[in-house]
Amino acid sequence: MVIFDALSPSTEHYDRCVKFQLYRTIESLKEYILVSQDAVRVEQYVRQDATTWTLHDRQGLKAELTMNSIGASLPMERIYEAST
Length: 84
Prior knowledge:
By secondary structure, the chain is of the alpha+beta class. It has one domain: Alpha-Beta Complex (tt1808, chain A). The chain contains 2 helices and 6 strands, in the order βαβββββα. The strands form 2 sheets. Strands 1-2-3-4 form a 4-stranded mixed beta sheet, with helices on one face. The chain has a two-stranded antiparallel ribbon with strand order 5-6. The longest helix has 12 residues, at 12-23. The chain is globular, with a radius of gyration of 13 Å.
């Protein structure tokens, strides 16, 4: 239901374009989450229907990532705690 991808300079284009296009064909996928390595930033794509995805952009350690599809929340400081 949720896929996380950590972005790196060498894979960012592939993750954003090719991979996301392939992932959109997975009917059970509800959220695609891209985690930046260069900044405290998480991009969350949420499926609205078969062809529509909504972007939620989270930035900063005080933000929280809420994943309604699995009923879970994750503070950004937890995502980035090993790198700070």
